[in-house]
Design brief:
Blueprint: H1 8-26, H2 32-44, H3 46-61, H4 87-100, H5 110-134, E1 147-150, E2 157-160, E3 166-169, E4 174-180, E5 183-196, E6 205-209, E7 212-216, E8 220-225, E9 230-237, E10 239-244, E11 252-255, E12 258-263, E13 266-271, H6 274-279, E14 287-294, H7 295-302, E15 310-312, E16 321-327, H8 331-341, E17 344-349, E18 352-357
Parallel strand pairs: 5-6, 15-18
Antiparallel strand pairs: 1-4, 2-3, 3-5, 4-5, 5-8, 6-7, 7-10, 8-9, 9-12, 10-11, 12-13, 14-16, 17-18
Helix pairs in contact: 1-3, 1-5, 2-3, 3-5, 4-5
Length: 358
């Protein structure tokens, strides 16, 4: 009676895979996850388990591949972990094993011939696997460098971005833009930027600053980050989502007219009419608008345009709240108003103007 046809190519592949599993297990660095992966492979096909058990029996019957004696000088069976030798030594052992193993003088029967065939197939499979692992791997491609846009002190600069969006930078501001298949990532490194975002639902537009991420698909909003621990987001069109770096904190959805201010980890929300929210971005037209703004933030904003920096000589002034609308190039008028309307005294020292409590 004729034997059923067999796929010799598939059998060889299965035996090579079984040999690779056996060598991997014998290497010593065998974890529960490896055992689970092996069991899953054995369960895929009855031929997998037959090939593995056959090679395992041959492995043990031949004193864990006596052919490894080409590199083994101890007595008895090589210890588990002998495979942990440096890759060059493993390769030399395997090549010597294949070259130096003498043929069987007189096979004792069909079972012994089958065992030696399985052993040879296992050796070839392990050798092929190790040769593959020893081949130098091409380094992973580096992500593209971000594109950086910056504005000088006293300058307002508008830039067209590669995705069709537009970024307008207030004075002394800087952003870095990087594109990925799943997002458009912008880092506001300093200052303030207004973004008019081109719609692309497949790639959200994400601005990172001060430990927060502001995400939009297609909208118009501004992000300001002047001082550590502070952030301001103004939305004039559409909606954006404000999310802290800690994913355990809830996100905040900001519709048009929203102003979100972050101070020391606390998010303060205000809802303004659209024109009132837009006035907070009047720096594009040469005006600075403050509405219950801490003096430290107002000073930082003026310093993006003024030739002489303002300096708070006493930290107690930082939280003083001010309001008003000022020409961004009229620093002297701003200082005079501070002295007239708030308990502040100004003193000019060289290239700086120091502000003291009065």
């Amino acid at each position: 009676m004729a034997s059923p046809p067999t796929d010799t190519g598939a059998a060889a592949r299965i035996e090579a895979a079984a040999a690779a599993w056996l060598a991997r297990r014998d290497a010593g660095a065998w974890a529960d996850a490896d055992a689970a992966a092996l069991e899953a492979w054995l369960a895929q096909d009855a031929r997998h388990r037959v090939a593995f058990l056959r090679l395992q029996d041959a492995w043990q019957a031949s004193d864990r591949l006596q052919a490894l004696g080409a590199g083994w000088r101890g007595k008895g069976v090589p210890a588990r972990g002998q495979w942990a030798a440096p890759p060059a030594d493993r390769r030399a052992q395997l090549l010597a094993a294949v070259a130096m193993r003498p043929p069987s003088a007189s096979p004792a029967g069909r079972g012994e011939r089958r065992a030696w065939r399985a052993l040879a197939a296992g050796l070839l499979g392990v050798a092929a696997l190790l040769l593959l692992l020893l081949q130098p791997q091409a380094p992973a491609p580096r992500p593209p460098a971000p594109v950086v846009y910056a504005s000088a002190r006293g300058e307002v600069a508008t830039h067209a971005l590669a995705d069709g969006s537009q970024a307008t930078l207030a004075g002394a501001s800087r952003i870095a833009v990087r594109y990925a298949p799943d997002r458009r990532a912008v880092t506001l490194e300093r200052g303030e930027a207004l973004f008019a975002v081109a719609k692309d639902p497949a790639r959200p537009f994400v601005v990172s600053a001060g430990g927060y991420a502001v995400t939009a698909v297609g909208t118009r909003f501004a992000v300001r980050h002047d001082l550590p621990g502070t952030l301001r987001v103004v939305v004039t069109e559409g909606r954006v989502r404000l999310q802290a770096a800690d994913p355990a904190q809830p996100s905040t959805l900001l519709p048009a007219g929203s102003v979100a201010e972050v101070e020391a980890g606390r998010v303060l929300l205000r809802s303004l009419p659209a024109d009132a929210a837009a006035r907070l971005l009047d720096w594009q037209q040469g005006w600075l608008v403050f509405a219950d703004t801490p003096l430290a933030e107002a000073v930082a904003e003026f310093n993006r345009y003024a030739p002489q920096p303002l300096v708070l000589a006493d930290p107690a002034l930082a939280t003083l709240r001010i309001g008003g609308r000022f020409r961004r190039d009229n620093q002297a008028g701003f200082v005079r108003l501070l002295e007239a309307g708030w308990p502040v005294r100004a003193e000019r020292q060289g290239e700086r103007i120091l502000l003291y409590p009065r």
